[in-house]
Each structure stands twice: as structure tokens, then as C-alpha cells.
Write a structure and sequence with these properties.
It is built from 7 helices and 2 strands. A hairpin with a 2-residue loop joins β1 and β2 (98-106). The relative contact order is 0.12. The protein has 150 residues and is mainly alpha-helical.
């Protein structure tokens, strides 16, 4: 069961600016999402590993592409990819006609885990919608999708 816990009290939230509010809510939903997965699976997957898996789902990007397009240090990305590989969630392959470059893709197990986690995140989104309303969730999603030109 996915619960919506609080990191800080509602009264403390009232005094935060936009940046800190986004950060608090992001931390909250990531913590709940990670806990939901790890409570139902024997394969521990960190939020950073999920982030990488989301970027490669249904793709075969090069590792250098991932390091350039994921907001994690290059060294950390290589560590996470190694961990994901050891867990059997990704496979690393040579790129055709390029001896230096490697590409990465989810294994069948990685895809299965990713799809199950998407369902868990859907449950969390539904729980949030129950609390604040489905229309509010849709408005929030649309606002976050906008190009803020910053």
C-alpha cells in the first residue's frame, strides 16, 4: 500500500518559496516511490538507478549519451550502470563500428521491473489525486510540462 507521508509539517510548507516547495514534494514522492518498490521486491533499486532506467527504457543509448543527458556525475553514472548490470537489469554492449563506445539497454528483467514500478507510481499518482483532486493533478502536470524559458 502506498501512503502519502509528510517530510515536514503543513505549517512549515506555507513558508517555503516555489523552489523549496518543489524540492520538498519531489523528495516526498521519490521517497514514497522508492519505499513502495523496495517493500514489494527483492531487487533494491535506488532513485538514481530508476532515473537512469527511465532514460534508457525502450532505447539503446550510448553510455556517453547517458552521462551527458542525466543530471548525475559521470563517475556516479558509471557506478550505477555497473550496479544495474550486476543486478541483471541492464546489459552493456559494444557499439557497431566503434571499439570505444558502449551502449546500454534494459534486460527483460529490467523492463519487467520498470513496468511494475510504473504501475506503483500510477498508484501513488492516484493517491495524490484522491487527496487534491484529479483536475488539480492534471493542472499540475500541465504546468510542469510547460517550457518555462529559464
Amino acid at each position: 500500500m502506498i501512503g502519502v507521508d509528510r517530510l515536514i509539517s503543513n505549517s512549515e510548507l506555507q513558508n517555503l518559496d516555489l523552489i523549496d516547495l518543489l524540492s520538498e514534494r519531489h523528495s516526498l514522492v521519490r521517497k514514497i516511490s522508492e519505499k513502495a518498490w523496495n517493500n514489494q521486491s527483492e531487487i533494491y533499486i535506488s532513485n538514481s538507478e530508476w532515473y537512469i532506467m527511465a532514460r534508457i527504457y525502450k532505447k539503446q543509448p550510448s553510455i556517453s549519451y547517458v552521462t551527458k543527458n542525466v543530471e548525475i556525475s559521470r563517475q556516479a553514472i558509471h557506478k550505477f550502470i555497473k550496479n544495474l548490470s550486476e543486478k541483471g537489469l541492464v546489459e552493456i554492449k559494444n557499439v557497431e563500428n566503434n571499439k570505444k563506445e558502449k551502449c546500454i539497454q534494459l534486460t527483460a528483467l529490467g523492463e519487467e521491473c520498470y513496468i511494475k514500478n510504473e504501475a506503483l507510481k500510477g498508484q501513488l499518482e492516484n493517491k495524490i489525486a484522491e487527496k487534491i483532486g484529479a483536475e488539480q493533478v492534471n493542472i499540475l502536470k500541465e504546468l510542469l510540462k510547460l517550457d518555462w524559458k529559464i
